[in-house]
Amino acid sequence: MPRNVTQFDLLISCPSDVKEELEIIKGTVADFNRMYGAANNTLIVTKHWSTDSYPQSGGKPQNLLNKQFVLECDAAVAVFWTRFGTPTDNYGSGTEEEIEELINSGKQVFLYFSDRQINPASLDPEQYKKVIEFRERYKDKGIYAPYSDLAEFKKDFLNHLSLYFVNLLANRNENKSTISSNLSVKGVRNGKITENPIMYKRSYQNSKFIADLESNIHSLFEQVRNLQLPDQSEVVDDSEKDEKIVALGVNSSLANFAKANKEGQNQLKGFNSIFGSVEITLQEEFQNEIKSFAEESNIELNYNDFFNIGELSKQKQPFGGGPFGTGSSYSLVGSEDEKEKYRLLDQLYEKISEYRHWKSYFASLDSKFYIDLCLSNFGTSYDEDVDIKLYVKTGQLCIGKQLPLPDNDILETAIKFTDPFFKPNKSLSVIEYDDYPEYVSVSHPDIPLYGLTRSYEEKVESHKEEYLDSIDDIFCYDYFQEDGFDVICYKQSYIKQNTNVYFPSIIVFQNIPSTIHYEISSKYFPEVIKGELKPILEE
User: Fold this and answer.
1) Torsion-angle region of 223 (φ positive above 0: left; ψ -120 to 50: alpha; else: beta)
2) Pick from 238, 295, 379, 480: most CB atoms within 10 A?
C-alpha cells in the first residue's frame, strides 16, 4: 500500500583514482536501505556526477554541478587515495569544494583516506602531495577515518553510516508527535536568508551592456570621421573640364576622346534613369539623431564633412534583388568609399537608435523596487501541495504584464534577458523553484521560403508574443484583488525539511510597501499559517 518515505540524498565525492570504493559505497547504501530504511520509511539515495549530472552551458563545471545537485544533498561521503583532483575557482579540487561547502552548511560529511599500497608507476607526485597536505589540515578535527584495505573500508563505512542515520531515525521516532513541517516566507539577499526582507534597486543603465553599446557607437563615429570624401564644392563640372582641355591646347584627338567619353556617360545616365537612379540625401531626422548623440557625448564633428557621402545614388534593379527577384530592388551607385561611408552612417544610426531603446527600457526597470523571497521549511519533516498567497496593498505590485515592455526593435534580444532579469539565482542557502509550467515557444523562425520573408510587423508581433509568454512563464502566479489588496498565489508541490526554495520570480514593486502579508496552507499541516513581512530599503 502507498506510504510516505523520507528521502536523504548522499553525495559521493571522489577523485578519478577511487573506483572500487565507489562501488562499495553504492552497495553499502543498498544494504542499509534493506536493513534499516524500509522499517523506518526512509531511503538513502546516492548522487554522483557520472549519473546525476546533465550537459549544461553557461558556467564553470563545478559551479554547474553545485547547482544541479551537489548543494541539495543532505550528506556526503568523500574518499581520497593518490589523486586530489582538478582545481576549481575557489578550491584545490572539486572534491575539496564539495566537502567544504557541505561542512559549512552544517551537513554531515563522511571523509576517508586510503592507506592501500600504491603502484609507483601510476603515482603523480604533485597530486599525492596535495592529498597529504589536505589530510594534514584535518588530522586534529576528528572528521576523517583512514583504512588499509577495501574490506576495512566497507566495514567502517557501513558502521559510520548506520551510527549516523540510525541515531537520526531514532531521535525522529522518539519525537514523532512533534514531527512536522514548519513553513514560513523569508527574505533573501545575495543568496542568504535575511532577518527582514531587503528591497533593492537595479542599475541597468550603468551596466557593462550599455557601456559596450556606447563603446561600439564611439568606434563607428571614428570610422566615419576617418573616411574623408572630397568637398563637393571643389568638384569641377564636366563642361568646365572640356573647356580646360581646349584652353590648355591639348591635341584634338584627346579632346575628341573626352567628348566621346562624355557622350557615353550621358547615354549611361539615360539608361540608368530608366531604372530610377536617384541621388541619396541623408534625411534631417537621420542627421539630427546622430548630432544629438554626438553633442550628449561631447564628440566634436565637422558636420559638413561627416555627412558628406559624395554623389552616391541608388539605382532600381531591372529584375529586383535576390535569387528570385524578391529582395531589395535598389543598389548603391558610387565609389567604394562613398558606399562604405553610407553603410557606416547607417550602422551608426541603427546603433544609436538601439542604444536609446535600451536606455529607455532600462530606465523603466531601474525605477522599480525588487525583493527576493523564499518559502522556508525549518521543520522536522517534508511537506507537499503547499499553497502560498502574498497580499500587498493595491497599486504597489508590478505584476507580470505590468512590467515595462521593450521597444519593438529590441524585443528579440530582450527575450534572452527575461531569466537573468527576473529569476533569482540559486545559492548554497536557497534552491531554485522548479514547478514552472511547461513552456512551448510559439515563435516562428524567420526562414525564407522561395526568397520570401515575413514583414517587419509580423516579426514584431511574433517577438512580442514570445516575450510575453516568457514573462508569464516566470511570473507563474494567479492574480486576484481582494479588499484593497493585490493577491498573488502559487503552489510548491514538495519541500524537504530544512530547505529554502525561492519564489518563482523576483517580486517587482512600483513603490515600497510598509507590510507584506502571507498565508500558507499545506497537505500535512492542518492550519493556515499567517505571517507578515516588513521590508527595508537597501542602503
Assistant:
1) alpha
2) 379
Count of H helices and E strands in the chain? 15, 20
How many whole angstroms separate alpha carbon 199 and alpha carbon 370? 5
CA 43 remoteness from chain centre: 35
Q: Residue holding cell 505584476?
A: 399
| Beta pairing, strands 529-533 & 516-521 | antiparallel
Mean pLDDT, residues 66-89 taken together: 82
Tens-place pLDDT, residues 331-385: 888 899 999 999 999 999 999 999 999 999 999 999 999 999 999 998 888 899 9
How many residues are recorded in the chain? 539
pLDDT tens per residue across span 137-165: 877 666 788 999 999 999 999 999 888 88
Q: Residue 323: is its pLDDT beyond 50?
A: no
Long-range contacts of 186-189 (CB under 8 A, 24+ apart): 186/373, 186/374, 186/376, 186/500, 187/371, 187/372, 187/373, 187/374, 187/533, 187/535, 188/372, 188/373, 188/374, 188/424, 188/427, 188/429, 188/430, 188/500, 188/502, 189/372, 189/538
Least confident range of 98-107, 366-375, 436-445, 477-486: 436-445
Residue 430 banded pLDDT, cuts 50, 70, 90: very high
Does this model's pTM top 0.70? My answer is no
Rounded CA separation 329/505 (Å):
48
Half-sphere exposure of 390 (CA within 13 A, CB side): 30
Quote the pLDDT of residue 247: 40
DSSP 239-290: HHHHHHHHHTT--HHHHHHHHHHHHHHHHHHHHHHHTT-EE----HHHHHHH
Q: Does residue 370 contact residue 506 with C-beta atoms inside 8 Å?
A: yes
Cβ(221)–Cβ(306) below 8 Å: no
Cβ count within 10 A of residue 27? 13
Q: Which residues contact 167 (CB under 8 A, 6 or more apart)?
A: none
Largest Cα–Cα distance of the chain, in whole Å?
Answer: 120
The mean per-residue pLDDT over the stretch 209-232 comes to 92
Q: Which of 110, 95, 30 is nearest to 61 (CA)?
A: 95
- Give tens-digit pLDDT for 35-55: 887 777 788 998 887 776 666
DSSP 288-329: HHHHHHHHHTT----HHHHT--TT-EEEE-TT-BSTTS-B-S
DSSP class per residue in 106-124: T-EEEEEEE-----GGG--
Question: What is the rounded CA–CA span in Å between residue 221 and residue 289?
Answer: 13
